[in-house]
Amino acid sequence: MSEPKSPTPTPAGDTYKGWVFKWTNYIKGYQRRWFVLSNGLLSYYRTQAEMGHTCRGTINLATAVISVDDACNFVISNGGAQTYHLKASSEVERQRWITALELAKAKAARMQAESDDSGDDFPPSSLPGGGGQGGGSQNSEVQSTLRTLGSKVEDLSTCNDLISKHGSALQRSLSELDSLRLTGEAGDKIRQVTERATLFRITSNAMINACRDFLALAQSHSKRWQKALQAEREQRVRLEEALEQLAKQHNHLERAFRGAAQAHAIVDNKGGAGPGKGEASDEDDENEFFDAMEDAPEFITVPADPQFHKRSSSNASGLNTDLCADDQSLNEEPLAMNQESPSQELVPLKKRRARIPDKPNYSLNLWSIMKNCIGKDLSKIPMPVNFNEPISMLQRLSEDLEYHELLDKAAKCHSSLEQMCYVAAFCVSAYSTTVYRTGKPFNPLLGETYELDRRRESGYRSLCEQVSHHPPAAAHHAISDRGWTLRQEITVASKFRGKYLSIMPLGTIHAIFEKSNNHYTWKKVTTTVHNIIVGKLWIDQSGEIDIVNHTTGDRCHLKFAPYSYFSRDVARKVTGVVMDKDGKAHYVLSGTWDEKMEFSRVMQSSRGGENGTEGKQKTVYQTLKARELWKRNPLPDGAESMYYFTALALTLNEPEDGVAPTDSRRRPDQRLMEDGRWDEANGEKQRLEEKQRSARREREREAASQRASSQSEEAVDEDSFVDHSMKSAPHDSYKALWFESCEDQFTGEQVHIYKGGYWETKELGNWEGCPDIF
Fold first, then answer.
1. Where is the composition biased (Basic and acidic residues) (predicted)?
2. How far apart are CA 453 and CA 651, in angstroms?
3. Are 541 and 560 in contact (CB under 8 A)?
């Protein structure tokens, strides 16, 4: 060929690059291509200039088979889906690639095994060497170094195997050379021995370099390991001392409180009304509190004296009166102070289904679709139903009401601070249904609705409508006979980042209680789906939520801790503090978003000393015994074969009579997917999306025609009235049917609020105004 001689492939860290001839077809034969080996993936390009924008193909070496055909040819295959027939310019160059590919394959296999383990539901504290936030930076560094050293050891092992293999081949060649007489074959055998010796030298050099890297890394980190070990020992000693002193402090406070109680009892017997000697201890400046450990949570809780639980409002003058009243209500069963109940028990009128058809086991090459989605909004990319679950986003939004009883309890609370605890628990409970749900809900069509009428069973009914398509936005309104209203408009933004998928819900959730007129607002946190390409899919929630009571000024700050391999904390942890308008803490919330939440009454708080390099102070809360606020319901039997649906989710797509023709239950592609007919569902999905695009184009034509008509009238008569809003009207003039757009008075956002009429229309059975979207 007229191509210039291929340059020697050059390694750059874990990356290996070079020209290799690749078999294309019987007409063109082998063609020169630029190959790049990086992070366990072998990619190729027509030229080096294509590396920035066009990849011609990629194969994952973790599951690939590497075989040698002859002196210069070798084959890479991943089991039939992809096979590369390659040819190097010489046997030496081929062996360089084989060595690099074997090393990359070993690393990729280890990375895949570690990635599979990362999604297991084990607490981080059970992992070896898992550092908590208190020892964070040092343990992270040690773990990183150990993984690097382990990788180098594996490299040495791989190189050792290759040396053994090439050494045996060299020995066989030498033996054959010794047995030959001086004939014409002697020259060929000598050249073969020379090439074998060259291969052996290349592999030996690779092993020597790996040994040198290992030794240099070990030497540079030995002193650092010693310091880290010493720091861990000193930290343990400090913790033991702090624990001992804390126990002494607890005993001191207990004795002081008992003395104060006795003194107060004596004063009461004498008819005195003044406070006892020890009752001002709640504000005693001499009380000693300890610093939080470095990188610890924002606050620390310690148990209060058990006698706090038995105090009544008559003998607790050392504390605020309203505090004791709330405390009394919280030490009983959560709703024992409210005995309001309907005159008759609500019983279901309809038996709901408890199963749906099992999920079919269809295989799909995820990477072949997702590689074209990197950096794009997934709401604008057509996806097969293989990635979906058989419910729509409107139904998924209605699942927020899975634990509606928390709002029922909140509506009965006399204290706004206690009510805030239940609202916070309801906010967290909405994420409990997502822990195993890796499927994507169907994107609703514009104008699609979903009703969830549980008025007879649970006292509420809910309506959702897709009010916008780009960006996709859904409005939700739920009202309960038990004194609360929930409304929200959520726009979902999603980005595929290669290794994970980020889902960012945008919008504000409102909860309004009729009896107290309290109005709460909050936003959702970010959902992350990990291991999109390799490994087991798993979901995490992370971020912070501020729940605000706009009536009283009370606030609750919730923190969803992101999962960390090195954290000693329980996975999926959520912590929070409920404060009044003055910033005084009244309750501490703790738990996990997938299991349960607990609350503790704050009896006393104090700022700790400086902690960490930034000099931050930690708050120490002295609390009563924690009580359960919410607990997740167990999944139905066989949930793993039914998309991990909860008991409520199994009923969401159950056919019902009398619903609107735009209801998600009537969507044909979703129904076909639930029945296991995925190929037909994909065809229906494409038909519905094309029908939606046609409807949008028709609306744009009508809007353009109206604008042209207005401009024509204005040209005929300059004094004639012209609706100038038509000039700036968007091309798509769609308006929601059951919701109207307005400005939210609390957030200032432009939102859609339920304008009424749906349930009245349902009673009449007159759906003439509904669009034909299915």
1. 663-704
2. 11
3. yes
The two tokens of residue 709 are 């008509």
> Tell me, what DSSP letter sits at residue 377?
B
Of 142, 292, 317, give the one whose Cα is nearest residue 221. 142
Pairwise CA distance, residues 207 & 202, whole Å: 9
**Which of 257, 251, 252 is CA-nearest to residue 277?**
257
Regarding beta strands 460-469 and 472-480, do their DSSP bridges make them parallel or antiparallel, or are they unpaired?
Answer: antiparallel
- Give the residue carrying structure tokens 């706004």: 416
CA dist 302 and 294 (Å) reads 18
Longest dimension (CA), the chain: 127
> Residue ranges of the domains in the chain?
15-111, 367-541+646-685
Tell me which range, 163-177, 302-316, 475-489, is most confidently predicted by mean pLDDT.
Answer: 475-489
Check whether 335 has a pLDDT greater than 50. Answer: no
Rg (CA), the chain: 34
**DSSP code per residue over 310-336:** G--TTS-TTS-HHHHHHHHHHSS-TTT
Residue range 340-397, pLDDT digits in tens: 444 445 454 688 999 999 998 876 655 555 555 566 555 556 678 888 899 999 999 9
- The crossing angle, in degrees rounded to 10, of helices 91-118 and 136-179 is 150
Range 15-111: architecture per CATH:
Roll (2.30)
pLDDT for position 644: 92
Token pair belonging to 307: 């006698």
Helix, strand or coil for residue 252? helix
Single out the residue of 573, 577, 547 nearest to residue 560, CA to CA.
Answer: 573
**464 φ/ψ angles, rounded to the nearest 5 degrees:** -120, 150
> Cβ distance 161 to 203 under 8 Å?
no
For residue 386, give the DSSP letter. G
